Amino acid sequence: MSVPLRVLLVEDSEDDALLLLRVLRRGGYDPIYERVDTATGMAAALDGREWDVVISDHSMPTFSSTAALEMLRDRDIVDLPFIIVSGKIGEDTAVASMKAGANDYLMKDNLARLNTAIERELRDAEARRERSRAERDLAVSETRLRMMIEQSPLSVQILSPDGKTLRVNRAWEKMWGVTLDGIPGYNVLRDEQLIENGVMPYIERGFAGRATVIPPVRYVPDNSIPDVSDVSDRWVRAYIYPVRSEAGKILEVVLIHEDITQRMRAEEERLQAEEKYRSIFENAVEAIFQTTVDGRLLTANPAMARMLGYDSPEELIEKVRDVGDQLYVDRERRTEFRRLVGEQGAVSGMEIALRRKDGGVVWGSVTARGVQDSAGEPTGYEGTIEDVTARKNAERAMREIREAERRRISRDLHDQVLQDLTYSLQSMQLARHIAGEGEWTGERDREVEALRRAVGGLRDAIYDLRVDDAEERPLVRSLKALVELNRQMAPEREVDLVVEEGYSEEPSGAVGVEVLRVVQESLANVRRHSRASSVTVTLGTDGGEVFVEVQDDGRGFDPEVVPGVGMTGMRERAQALGGELEVESAPGEGTLVRLRLAASILAGRDPKPA
To answer: Residues 162, 127: one domain?
Structure first.
């Protein structure tokens, strides 16, 4: 199969051109040609297409091989094979043509080696073009590499095999505060600071031909070098690797420095923060915890372990697999905790009773928040627990002391003062009955009436002081007894009790006594001040809360009026229970007193602290 060959024939003889084409075809080529014999024709041919070879006669009437070669030089066409085929050409002329750029010359009467010459020159031309492309690519690559090194944010130092600095980039000069001219004679293999910092073995490894990562080192600027005094200490990580020739000889050694000062300082600050947090975590008085959503402890500090009676946080985390099942005395409080965190994102000051390792109970005030992942899904809880057991013990003791004192006062008033006043009243009533006409005066009647009111008021006070062991009874039963007592004390007033279904018949504990006191104080206010004809006590539920209402149809009062001692006492009791007291009233429209508190507190769950 013939090989296509693009041939530019610079020939004034058409016959000689046909002869050349015949020789080419015999040699296996399929010539695509154009014949020219003037400078203008050759210029047009060169502009029209690319050529594989130029075959030129030496001497023509208006053109020559010398002029053709000159045209190629002017156009910077250096890799196009140029073969002279002439009828006669002297030896000196042939040599001059070869020096001018011709690749070969043949005589027209001896074309036997034409194809061989073309084949050789095509091969050599391709080699030259390939070499030229490689050189251009190498130049481009070197330029690109030089620009990358120069513009790199990393410090780059090019070293000779004996340790001398050959080149540096701008980042190197900025990092070290000096130019290459400022450190004449510097040799990295003799750098004292590198030796002191223990870096030299890594440097030597790089010069021995092994790419090496140099661990972070803190460098102090050399103040003996001009213009370096303003450079601060810095942390540097370095990389060193050899550049080899094709034969494996080390030509250069590249040393790259990365300034990691900010990173190291950030890491140091992080470690300090962690140490500070760890110190706070370990030495905190309050318990600190983290849990998963399902109640598994992730972390706990020593204070939490001590609070719950465990020897260490590790023992606590190992043995408490579910906070809700194993620690919460009242599991409904756990439900309440989750509900509040879900609605508000956090809880603050929520009091819960927790079970200790020894079975005792400790009271804690919890402040915690929910933890979420990047998608906003809950992953757990974290927070603190303040041990408020001592306060709870004090509050319980105070309630017990207060109730004991109320019972003592009630007993003393009933057994002594009330009996004496009742005896005096009866004596005066008897004296009035037996007195003769004119012996009893209106003033004595007023005295009897005042004494009767005193006896009634004292009896009311005694009734108010008595709770009749309400702590050992359900709140519903205590309220029924209190309502019945108020009916007896004021038979002219209608007193009703409304109770929703579902209340426990278990004892309501000390919390129930405090609720009963609020209702008792409210009913006392109705008796003393309201002039009401009816009053209704309602016990109900609203979501996770319990409410107790006392509503009358009396004369009411202005809400702006400063509350009396009784109202202040009710508010203080409500706050102590963690509840809220609401009062609604207006002149002539009666009064509504409502106490709200968490259902679990009122359900009789008031465990005794350890």
So the answer is: no
CA-CA distance, 471 to 479, in Å (whole number)? 12
Give the DSSP per-residue string, 460-471. HHHHHH---SGG
Residues 6+ apart with CB under 8 A from 82: 53, 54, 56, 65, 68, 69, 72, 101, 102, 103
Q: In Å, how far are 101, 136, 233, 560, 607 from 563, measured between CA atoms?
A: 121, 99, 70, 9, 33
Residue 455 makes CB contacts below 8 A (sequence gap 6+) with 418, 421, 422, 425
Which candidate, 552, 520, 519, places its Cα nearest to that of 533?
Answer: 552
**C-alpha span between 607 and 330 (Å, rounded):** 9
d(CA 587, CA 530) in angstroms, rounded, equals 10
Helix (H/G/I), strand (E/B), else coil: 366: strand
Return the pLDDT at 228: 44
Query: Do residue 243 and residue 301 come from a single domain?
Result: no
Q: What is the DSSP string of 485-545?
A: HHHHH-TTSEEEEEE-S----S--HHHHHHHHHHHHHHHHHIIIII--SEEEEEEEEETTE
Q: Give the type of residue at 231.
A: V
Which residues have C-beta within 8 Å of that of residue 184, sequence separation ≥ 6?
none
Give the model's pLDDT for residue 609: 47
Place of tokens 């609720």: 515
State the residue range of the domain holding 302: 284-387
CA Rg value for the chain: 55
Is residue 63 within 8 Å of residue 42, measured between CB atoms?
yes
Predicted confidence at residue 439, as pLDDT, reads: 63
Could you report the average pLDDT of every consecutive run of 10 residues in the chain (610 residues)?
91 92 92 94 93 92 92 88 85 81 87 90 87 80 74 88 91 86 86 88 92 88 52 83 90 91 87 85 89 92 93 93 87 84 90 91 93 90 92 79 67 63 70 66 72 67 56 76 81 89 67 82 85 91 85 85 66 78 90 86 52
Distances (CA, A) of 53 to 8, 118, 529: 6, 8, 128
Instruction: Look at the chain and report how many structural domains it folds into.
Output: 4
In a 3-state reduction of DSSP, which class is residue 210? coil
Is residue 315 classed exposed, middle or buried when 0-12, 13-18 and 19+ CB atoms within 10 A define those classes?
A: middle
Measuring CA to CA, which residue among 57, 245, 286 is closest to residue 161?
245
Query: Which among 387, 408, 425 is the end of a domain?
Result: 387
- Which of 585, 584, 593, 490 lies closest to 537 in space, CA to CA? 593
Whichever domain contains 570, its CATH number is 3.30.565.10
Please report whether residue 427 resides in a domain: no
Last residue of a domain, one of 331, 352, 387: 387
For the record, the structure tokens of 64 come out as 């020559």
CA nearest 83: which of 121, 127, 30?
Answer: 121
Instruction: Kindly give the pairing relationship between strand 82-86 and strand 53-56.
Output: parallel
Pair (93, 30) in one structural domain: yes
Q: What is the DSSP string of 534-591?
A: EEEEEEEEETTEEEEEEEE-S----TTSPP-HHHHHHHHHHHHTT-EEEEEE-TTS-E
